[in-house]
């Protein structure tokens, strides 16, 4: 329970880094005001799909994952809330040994770094479920649990509502329960496993108002 409190506190601190204009100025960026032209009221879809395969003289293994695919809504010109889904699967010699699903909610504040770059934070709270090969037999057993995660991203604005997103660090806690008991996984810092690239698209369904030139 103590580790849960520590992780929750760290997640709150990560979001707090972006929560005020003072911090935005300290980081050299700016948060758009509500009366400025911006994405407030727009929707955003984002995601990535990864595939890797390793072939050795004795075996073949592969991993497929989406990390994650989400839908968000701009509650103002800087902050989004939304839902997302992620899936991963590991196979050895064409036999699936592990598959995991995640679904949950997320919150993402941001600040502009000039015209084309955005510094973004994101916090996820996910329910996790899946199947894995049991250590005592070759049959698959069910597991479920939860994940709390916070991470920073750098966004590059491409135009037309498109943007590239680069994740470069992570602070997370994953806890899953199977027949043998709880398994706890913690990630903190910058490493190859915490890097990721995704793409997003803003969708504007707001009614356009005609400008009055008079």
From the structure above, extract its key features.
214 residues; Porin; 2 helices; 59% strand; elongated
Structure notes:
With 214 residues, this protein is mainly beta. The chain has one domain (2-203): Porin (Beta Barrel), CATH 2.40.160.20. Helix content is 10%, strand content 59%. It contains two helices and twelve strands; from the N terminus they run ααββββββββββββ. It has helices at 2-16, 21-26; strands at 43-47, 49-55, 60-74, 80-92, 95-108, 110-113, 117-133, 140-159, 162-167, 170-178, 181-189, 196-203. Strands 1-3-4-5-7-8-9-12 form an eight-stranded antiparallel beta barrel. The radius of gyration is 20 Å and the shape is elongated. It starts with a helix and ends in an 11-residue tail after the last strand. The relative contact order is 0.17.
